[in-house]
Specification:
By secondary structure, this protein is α+β, with helices and mostly antiparallel strands. It is about 65% helix and about 10% strand.
Length: about 850
């Protein structure tokens, strides 16, 4: 019996491919439980349960029966699974019953709190004491079914956990049980005899049915239908794939865009047509009426085996295509046929293992025979898997210089390839020792995992191709955020199927889903995924509505008012903060989250958040102050922390200033509130410009003043009132210093005005003959003889080291004697020095 139990996982290893599809449908159905219609249905069911309530007497019988089965541990896994499903149903009803009278209980608690605490002296008025007693009695009566549901829910959870523990222990024992070794020659002959007897028994079923005159007559009567179904099935099986391939090749050459998308869709017909032929052929076999009970098990499995082979060929064709320029896996075109062969061989071996497992269940085959027949298939599967791992490892190693995404994919494939090589070594060794169940649970799930990951990879590529087709992206530029997110979701969706492939039960997944739906308790409040989804939807709607109103104010309402741009921005931003706050409150209330029970938890969190985020909170509050007081507004010219520029944006945490160098400076709002800020354009744009100028000594100062006044008054940006002023600053070291001080209409044009005035000053001074001095310095060397005496030894050494030069001409005149007090010409230098801080000039210094 133990060995028979071992054969069940062997047969289930092949059937998981079909179970994955069924679980996908189940997963989609469970995902819809979070949708609005399902939430409404759950509310209606909860209302009915609140009115009727669970039948606790029936639950007591079920719970007692389940606890007795757990204590004895004699029930089979099938019986335990059925019992578990029944308990899960009860647990769902108890979970719904916990919310019974929730609104009324909250109201009663509020009423009792409104009465205040009971006086310590006990001197309470009779009317209030009677009212308090009445409300307390109502609260106790309404809480009774809730407490009963909570107790029953806890008991059901415990029973389910015990059943899961028993089943897991049995699965572990089955995997670790040491069975007969397939290398024992004694078992070989017995295995062949039992296999032959099973095949003979299947043939005898057909012969006995044909020997029955009534059955033979019925078979002959349905023979035309059987022949038609047989012919149609064989044509679809033998020619359907070829027809689909030809159609795809013709259309592939004609398509100008989206070739990979349409090629993917056409390739599905390569599976659909032959698979339809297999179903038709199966119906033809059943239509003969000659298939017995055991033969019907074999015939019913034909579509599953056929789907396995067709799906493997389709996967191989899509992963290693013959014509695709950019396949999902970077494999050399001349080696792709080899990879397709390995994939197809693995599918054939999987089908053979399924045949052996099914024969072990329907035929009179012992467990030892099943082990002997399975061992060659395990060995061949390991050899093919090992060769495939080597092949992919070498191919991926040759493409290490790809992009980020492709390089990451290649590294994952290399890891999986090495894992395949390791499994290919461990599984045959374990099977040879006698751990056949462990070998089957290792090698075949690994093959199915590779198939599932291949499907995910193909779907991710399909999503990218569809996105590129819709957005008309250039070829080879299909990477975008949306396809990446969808690909990530596909990877997450594959996790439950991976768990099923590696031996997880459907009950395990449903248990995780049930725990997820229960939510979690926080401060006495249970928050479920439905509540969270309601919160997200309501808050998203409120946020979108706030942004819509903000946009309408910015573009339609505020521009038509007399409010300055800074005030308009402050109103829009303030409305956004208020709208987000209201949306959050409405979302919390709409989701049914009780904030009063979270007060203590929120208070504790606020302390920690206050210490950790005090700078951020300070900047946020400062941003609110800036919007209310408006010491600065967008477009203002300010100076803060040595940085000057225009305010471009005031956000929640910081303010962005664009300097005159066109660089952005991010200033925390706290610095603008607590620090010193110079605002050059606060309230208006009027400002003063100062233009300094110096003239040479001896110039008529009144004439200079009159010229500078004419220049200032003539400029269009200078205001007439107050009139510009000409200031004689004083006598500088090299010049007489004047300043033009004028008030401009727009201080933002200060540099342009200053530049234009300087041009006019240079022009007028040149016309009037007024000199603008500049600094000049003369350098005198007081003792040149001493300097020459110090340089003489060095010159002599240089002359001795140099080759002899041509003699000087005899007619060369001797140097004339020089006054030692007169500086030599080569030691005098006139240095003109332009002092940026002094635009005046004077006499040179000696």
């Amino acid at each position: 019996m133990i060995a028979k139990a071992v054969t069940l996982p062997m047969a289930a290893a092949l059937r998981r491919a079909l179970a994955v599809v069924l679980v996908l449908v189940l997963g989609l159905a469970m995902a819809l439980a979070l949708s609005a219609p399902m939430a409404m249905a759950q509310q209606g069911a909860a209302t009915q349960d609140a009115a009727a309530g669970p039948d606790y007497a029936a639950w007591q019988e079920t719970a007692t029966r389940a606890e007795e089965s757990i204590e004895r541990e004699r029930a089979s896994n099938v019986a335990l699974e059925a019992l578990r499903a029944e308990v899960v149903g009860w647990r769902e009803s108890f979970l719904a019953a916990q919310s019974t009278n929730g609104t009324r209980i909250t109201t009663l608690r509020t009423q009792i709190e409104a009465l205040g605490p009971v006086p310590e002296s006990g001197n309470e008025s009779e009317e209030i004491a009677a009212r308090r007693s009445e409300l307390t009695e109502q609260l106790t009566r309404l809480q009774a079914p809730v407490l009963a549901a909570e107790e029953a829910f806890t008991r059901a959870n415990g029973i389910i956990s015990e059943i899961d523990r028993i089943i897991r222990e049995r699965q572990t024992d089955a995997l670790l049980t040491l069975g007969p070794s397939p290398l024992n020659p004694v078992l070989w002959g017995r295995g062949l005899r039992e296999l032959g007897a099973t095949v003979t028994e299947l043939a005898d079923e057909v012969a006995r049915a044909w020997a029955n005159p009534a059955q033979r007559a019925a078979t002959m009567q349905d023979l035309p239908v059987t022949l038609v179904l047989t012919v149609v099935g064989l044509i679809l099986i033998l020619r359907g794939r070829r027809w689909a391939t030809r159609l795809g090749m013709r259309l592939y050459d004609r398509w100008k865009s989206g070739k990979d998308v349409w090629g993917f869709l056409i390739s599905l017909t390569q599976v659909a047509l032959p698979l339809a032929g297999i179903f038709v052929l199966t119906e033809a076999l059943f239509a003969t009426g000659l298939i017995g009970l055991k033969g019907s098990e074999i015939v019913s499995a034909l579509p599953i085996w056929g789907a396995t082979l067709l799906a493997a060929r389709w996967l191989a064709g899509r992963l290693f295509p013959a014509r695709m320029a950019a396949p999902p896996l970077a494999v050399q075109p001349e080696r792709r046929g080899e990879a397709r062969s390995y994939t197809t061989l693995l599918a054939v071996l999987m089908v053979l293992q399924g045949v052996v497992a099914l024969l072990g269940m329907v035929g009179d085959i012992s467990d030892e025979t099943v082990v002997v027949l399975s061992f060659p298939i395990i060995v061949m599967t390991a050899l093919v898997l090992f060769r495939l791992g080597q092949f992919l490892t070498k191919q991926m190693a040759a493409h290490t210089d790809e992009g980020n995404e492709t390089g990451y994919r290649n590294r994952v494939v290399r890891v999986l390839s090495r894992g395949a090589m390791l499994v290919s070594v461990v599984a045959p060794v374990a099977a040879a020792i006698g751990f056949t169940a462990a070998a089957n649970a290792l090698i075949y799930p690994f093959v199915l995992m590779l198939a599932l990951l291949s499907v995910v990879l193909l779907l991710q590529k399909l999503v990218s191709d569809v996105y590129a087709l819709i957005t008309h992206a250039p070829e080879g530029q299909t990477d975008a955020l949306i396809p990446v997110l969808i690909g990530f979701l596909l990877t997450l969706a594959a996790l439950p199927f991976l768990a099923l492939i590696w031996g997880a039960r459907v009950a395990d997944l449903t248990e995780i889903w049930a725990r997820f739906r229960e939510g979690f308790s926080l401060g006495g409040t249970r928050i479920s995924p439905t509540d969270f989804l309601a919160f997200v939807l309501i808050f998203t709607f409120g946020y979108a509505l706030t942004r819509l109103v903000q946009g309408a104010l910015r573009t339609s309402v505020l521009p038509k008012t007399k409010i300055d741009p800074g005030g308009q921005n402050a109103i829009a931003v303030g409305l956004g903060y208020v709208g987000i706050f209201i949306a959050a409150l409405v979302a919390i209330t709409g989701a049914g989250i009780d904030l009063s029970s979270l007060a203590i938890v929120a208070g504790a969190l606020s302390v920690g958040i206050g210490f950790g985020l005090q700078n951020i909170v300070s900047n946020f509050v400062s941003g609110i102050i800036l919007l209310i007081e408006r010491p600065i507004s967008e477009g203002d010219w300010i100076e803060v922390g040595g940085q000057q520029g225009y305010v471009r944006d005031i956000s929640v945490r910081s303010t962005r200033i664009e300097t005159f160098d066109r660089t952005d400076v991010i200033v925390p709002n706290a610095d603008l509130v607590s620090g010193t800020v110079t605002n050059f354009t606060r309230g208006n744009t009027v400002g003063r410009v100062i233009v300094p100028v110096g003239v040479a000594y001896g110039t008529d100062t009144r004439r200079v003043e009159a010229i500078l006044r004419e220049i200032a008054e003539a400029h269009p940006m200078v205001l007439a009132q107050p009139a510009p002023g000409i200031i004689f600053q004083g006598f500088g070291a090299d010049s007489m210093d004047f300043e033009i001080r004028a008030i401009l209409r727009d201080v933002n044009w200060m540099l342009s005005v200053k530049s234009e005035m300087n041009h006019q000053i240079a022009k007028r001074f040149a016309e009037e003959g007024i000199e603008i001095p500049f600094g000049q310095r003369d350098i005198w060397i007081r003792n040149p003889d001493a300097l020459r005496g110090a340089l003489a030894p060095a010159a002599a050494q240089a002359s001795a080291a140099a080759p002899a030069a041509a003699p000087a001409p005899a007619s060369a005149p001797a140097p004339a004697p020089r006054d030692p007090m007169t500086p030599p010409p080569d030691t005098m230098r006139d240095v003109e020095m332009d002092d940026a801080g002094d635009n005046s000039g004077g006499e040179g210094e000696k």
